[in-house]
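QUALITY CONTROL LOG
STEP: pairwise intake check
CHECKER ROLE: data steward
CRITERIA: each record must contain a sequence immediately followed by its structure tokens, with no blank fields

ENTRY 1 OF 2
RESULT FIELD BELOW
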Amino acid sequence: MGPMSHLNGSQHSMPGGMVGEVGEKATELYPELFERYEESQTRDYNQGDALFHSSLTWHASGSNTTNRVRWAMSSYRISGRTRYTGQANFNTDGLGLEPRKLFDHPNFPTVYP
């Protein structure tokens, strides 16, 4: 899987988005995050390792310089009591969810009561 580092505590900051796809650098776009939060020591992960962190945690890995695809899987968990805020998000846009209502949609099944 390769190396990954995190900004410790950054899940409490503003949500950002993917950077680096077209050459952007998070350190240049969001310098305040790197001033406020300590960067973790880079750790190497192996094929088959599992890593859990908040989706709001700023994290990064090095570029894939091989000619092989780097696969990853993401899975999000939220409380069954969570209410939709109406904020734009690629996971919820266009689903017809109502602000301040529970996530009553097949895309958000209850997996543990």
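ENTRY 2 OF 2
RESULT FIELD BELOW
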Amino acid sequence: MVHRVAQCRARLGDLDGAFDALRSALELGFRDLDVLVSDPHLAALRQDERWPLAPLAPGRAGDLELFAREVKRRAFRHTSVDAEVELLRPGVDRLSDAEFLVGLSRIVAALGDGHARVDPPADRADLHLAVPLRFEHFTDGVFVTAAAPEQADLLGAEVLAFDGVELDEVLARVDRIVGRDNAYGALAGVTRKLPRTTLLHALGVARHDDRVTLWLAAGTEVTVPARPVSKGESDARPCPPGWSFLLAPPLPLYLRNAGAPYWYTDQPDDDLLYVQINSVTDDPAEPFAAFVAGLFADLARRAPRRLVIDLRWNEGGNTFLTVPFLHRLVAYTGEIFVVIGRHTLSAAQNLSTMIANHTPALFVGEPTGSSPNFVGETAPFELPHSRFQVNVSDLYWQTSWPMDHRTWLPPDLYTPPTFAAYARKEDPALDAIRALSPGIICE
């Protein structure tokens, strides 16, 4: 709206008023600077010495200038990163692209923003190198749970070190470049980055950017070559297409359709209906509202004693889509259980918080990866020289009470993931729910 005021003032020839409105728009966090640079209504302002978006210096110096300005301007918690940028500036031209990426990532990781990150462009395959392994961090260690066919012999291996750097030190170094709302969300982010040899090399962990030697608990060392990995491949759960998975079918419910946006199944032997929501999105084949309508129609027909809502893999989406689900859930009279964990983030965190505040649901699993009230939004800007995409949140989600300063939503029943249970195809969370006596949840 303030941008429109600037346009109108400029067209009326009131340049002073137009500049006042433009400055207000920028101070209020106007996102799309490209619009201002190309807006024909602001042409007269761009010729004026008061134009606030001066040309950037060439190369990485310009990237640093834009990075510092936009992080300060956009971040919900008004934070200057000038001092950190100045520490990076003197040797910036001597850094590799991966080291520059890591340097910027360290800065945004300190913002206390689980959505803050710096990503390389998709066409820079050299910055997306990763070993074709899926690592999972359990309470009893870090293990390989999925692998490309040529590395299938590593399935189930426990990893103790990367290129001689002990695992705890590796985790600590990677932790410095991961944005987080809390320690559980950071753990999820760190584990996701463990295969990325480009990052490990820039962090001083891996000796090379295209391979890494894993030291295994079995007493062996294995050198694994890296290759470019796509976002779809790195995010696929529990196993990317074409890879080998540790567990043979049938899989436990929580892994069976972990790649589907949402699904449910009746478990009559346990007198429960299990619904897993893995993404707060609209599936073109069945929009979320239609899925919700079908789910609650089935609940009314089958009348199970317990409804289990599994959000442990749900890293978010569009919070506004959750409204029809919540409206129906608050009127539901059966017992409600919600499974949460370190990957329960963003819109899924909002959904969990609203369920906790408006229903008598019992929560099971791990603490969530985000907070009942948190800063979070996806609106990246691009650095012109490196083409890195930088995301800093400018939106505060106060989904809980104003005095709710908890860093996560805790479970009522803590059932941390262990590799021992995983390998046996057990689900400690669902097993704990099944073991509870009827009527344990009270209004």
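INTAKE CHECK: passed for both entries
DESCRIPTIVE NOTE, ENTRY 2: Residues 350 and 399 are 6 Å apart (CA to CA).
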